[in-house]
Specification:
Shape: rod-shaped
Distance between the termini: 17 Å
Oligomer: single chain
Helix content: over 70%
Structural class: mainly alpha
Order of helices and strands: HHHHH
Number of strands: 0
Length: about 240
């Protein structure tokens, strides 16, 4: 009789331990899977946010570069007018002016591709318009210089003044648009950086709350399973 009772008690203990163990394993699996998924989700959001932020930072950098290159080109044009009386100086500054023009156009082309990749169609259209207007502006400069210079290889100051009066101020509208574009892109980059920080903080808080809730529920389930097992043994 005692042997039979002992065997029964042993069987009940084994059954209780298996029940608690399987419950514990199940809870650990659920918590582990949920934790891994949460970490993967946060990491994915972080990588996506970083990529977008880096893209906007690059776009902002290109916008600033286009702005600076354009201002330097304007200065090169002034150098043509102020120092073009000597053939060598005129040739040097004309080459510098056209070289800077190519650099501005190249930067705007890069910027157009960057904004298109960032899904900023409005900015991409504005950059396209800027490129067209920039090329038209270059044609005005070239025509004004050719009309006065003709076949000569130098530009006396008197004639340089005539050219200056003809084209004075035509670059201002384009310069203002480049300034506005650069400022807008810089603001977008700063906004994205702030938004990413806020999103990551929110995700961290949500993840922490969720895991604490799951762990609490897991401990409760294991506790109930253990309580049930002990109750069977007492019975």
């Amino acid at each position: 009789m005692n042997t039979s009772a002992s065997r029964l008690r042993t069987s009940l203990l084994r059954s209780a331990l298996m029940s608690v163990s399987s419950t514990l394993v199940g809870v650990l699996v659920v918590v582990g899977v949920l934790s891994l998924f949460s970490i993967w989700s946060v990491n994915r959001a972080w990588e996506r946010g970083i990529a977008e932020m880096e893209g906007l930072r690059e776009a902002a950098r290109l916008g600033t570069q286009a702005q600076v290159e354009f201002k330097i080109q304007v200065q090169e044009w002034k150098n043509i007018l102020l120092r073009g009386a000597e053939p060598e100086e005129l040739s040097h500054y004309r080459a510098a002016f056209h070289g800077r023009r190519e650099r501005v156009d190249g930067v705007l082309t890069q910027l157009s591709g960057e904004t298109a990749a960032l899904a900023l169609p409005g900015h991409a259209r504005e950059i396209g318009a800027l490129q067209r207007d920039f090329k038209a502006l270059g044609a005005v400069y070239d025509r004004a210089l050719a009309d006065v210079l003709g076949a000569r290889d130098n530009l006396p100051l008197a004639e340089a003044g005539q050219i200056d009066r003809r084209v004075r101020g035509i670059d201002r509208a384009l310069e203002q648009r480049l300034d506005a574009l650069s400022d807008t892109l810089s603001d977008l980059a700063a906004t994205q950086r702030t938004a990413l920080s806020v999103e990551m903080r929110s995700r961290y808080d949500t993840l922490r709350t969720t895991l604490l809730a799951v762990l609490t529920a897991a401990l409760l389930i294991v506790g109930l399973a253990l309580f049930g097992a002990l109750r069977k043994l007492r019975d």
